[in-house]
Design brief:
Length: 222
């Protein structure tokens, strides 16, 4: 065991201050008035330094609305920009990550309209490594990450809530292929259509809803 609770086997990845590009592709199961199934593709960079974890990505999915009160609306897609910065403390036995900054931008474009917003997020995660002895090969490794996504500038729906991501194996390992599963559960209000109409806006904000989105697929890190 090295200082900072980092096992020798993870050191080659955890100690590199070099962003590494990655690609991801997989299906999405969507709520919130979307068609149930879509696909998501994304590309970006990931850095796994000893004390710092960084990610930045751009993503696209072909989700479109089927229950938004503005039908027919047959086509649509979402675009995303996301970034995050984590800090891993150097205390013996700790492999925890602490999140002290994050940003995401998203935009929905349909046949009939376009809307979007920028959001900050805060959270953290844990790298789990299971082995039967210190000198043994890992039996299991994974990363569990939980972020709270704020409503940010999304005045139209005010969507906010937890976003949980599982990655096998842990990105601290020196691997190329990873399976990633991401679940977001968001609370929102009815879409605001006339911001200057105060009674209507108050009514629409009072109509709350809860829905979830699930992405799962394969990530390749170069």
């Amino acid at each position: 065991m090295q200082p900072g609770g980092i096992t020798i086997r993870e050191d080659p990845v955890s100690g590199r201050f070099i962003p590494t590009p990655f690609l991801y592709l997989g299906p999405s199961v969507m709520g919130g008035g979307y068609a149930v199934f879509a696909y998501r593709v994304e590309g970006g960079v990931n850095m796994e330094a000893t004390h710092v974890i960084f990610r930045a990505l751009a993503a696209y999915d072909n989700g479109h609305k089927v229950d938004d009160g503005d039908q027919p609306n047959p086509k649509g897609h979402d675009r995303y920009l996301e970034s995050g910065l984590y800090f891993r403390p150097a205390h013996p036995g700790w492999t925890r990550m602490f999140y002290f900054g994050g940003y995401r931008w998203s935009q929905l474009s349909t046949t009939n309209y376009t809307k979007g917003g920028s959001r900050y997020q805060i959270g953290g995660g844990y790298d789990l490594f299971v082995r039967s002895c210190e000198a043994c090969r890992r039996d299991l490794s994974m990363r569990i990450n939980l972020d709270w996504v704020t409503a940010g500038s999304d005045w139209q729906n005010g969507s906010h809530g937890p976003n949980v991501t599982f990655t096998w194996p842990s990105p601290r390992e020196k691997r190329h292929w990873f399976y990633r599963q991401e679940l977001g559960v968001y609370r929102f209000h009815q879409s605001i259509t006339e911001p200057t109409n105060v009674p209507l806006t108050q009514f629409q904000r009072s109509k709350k809803g809860l829905d979830s989105f699930l992405d799962f697929g394969m990530m390749y890190r170069f």
